[in-house]
Amino acid sequence: MDRLEGLEQTTTLNNGVKMPKLGLGVWKTDNKSAKESVKTAIKKGYHLIDTAKQYGNETGVGEGIKEALAETGMNRKDLFITTKLFNGDQGYESTINALEGTLKRLDLTYLDLYLVHWPVDGKYIDTWKAMEELYRQGKIRAIGVSNFDNDRLQDLLNHADIVPAVNQMETNPINQEKGILEFNNHAGIQLEAWSPLGGGEALSNPEVNKIAEKHNKSAAQVILRWDWQRGFVTIPKSSHEARIIQNSDIFDFELSEAEMDAINQLDKGKRSLWYENFAWHGGEYVDEVDHWDDSPKNYKD
């Protein structure tokens, strides 16, 4: 399978919607860089783009989408666009209202996937009820969650009419979330990996690099292939054209069972972010949109 064929491959979500298995993420990217990355990725064959209101770059992502469609002749339906509900917008009415601001910034009429970015305690049940209503209205093709551990996800399922289609988690060789993966699989929820490369520790791991050398591939390509063979949807971030292409050049080799198992053994359960880090749990991360110098101040929905 060549690179472009691989980027066409999809997984079928629990509501029948087909979602590309490999896409582009834009966390910690300003609007100008997000615009260029998105435009480049689409022109190089990507169909899945993932952003969030909290990233402060929905406007840039929307501009990149618009320009790429114009330059390639592709249609909006050829793309799968994901964004996430801002934590400060959680609650029933505020969730209903927040979608219009997101669609305006992205310059879109609908979303393919809308995720609850984090399970804000005391609000995520009402938030999910609003997500279900937006889904019924046809403004979103699929709804899901992000960063939900098993206890919170089970609580959500106890109150939900619609099972989330996706749970997007920090998942990589050093943080494999095996228990969450097992729970998601049992519930029919697709796991999507954010921070799939795991930073320097995973990329510099001797075992990963030994496997990469054998296949004449980079450590990043080996990790993304490991994701692929495990059935994850994955969204590596890059602002560089060469890396965007390289990250999708993973379809001309296959990891053996022994190589897959070797990477499976690297799990340390080492998360970079979790609930206790955030301000609403008394931690260091404040619940606010990341504004960039090039960001229009249009986040007051």
Automatic annotation (TrEMBL):
Substrate binds at residue 117. PANTHER family: 2,5-DIKETO-D-GLUCONIC ACID REDUCTASE (PTHR43827), NADP-DEPENDENT OXIDOREDUCTASE DOMAIN-CONTAINING PROTEIN (PTHR43827:SF3). Coiled coil: none annotated. Pfam families: Aldo_ket_red. Residues 22-267 form the NADP-dependent oxidoreductase domain. The lineage of its organism: Bacteria, Bacillati, Bacillota, Bacilli, Lactobacillales. Keywords: NADP, Oxidoreductase. The record marks 84 as: Lowers pKa of active site Tyr. The active site is at residue 55. Belongs to the aldo/keto reductase family. InterPro entries: AKR, Aldo/ket_reductase_CS, NAD(P)_OxRdtase_dom_sf, NADP_OxRdtase_dom. One of its GO terms (molecular function) is oxidoreductase activity, acting on the CH-OH group of donors, NAD or NADP as acceptor. This is 2,5-didehydrogluconate reductase.
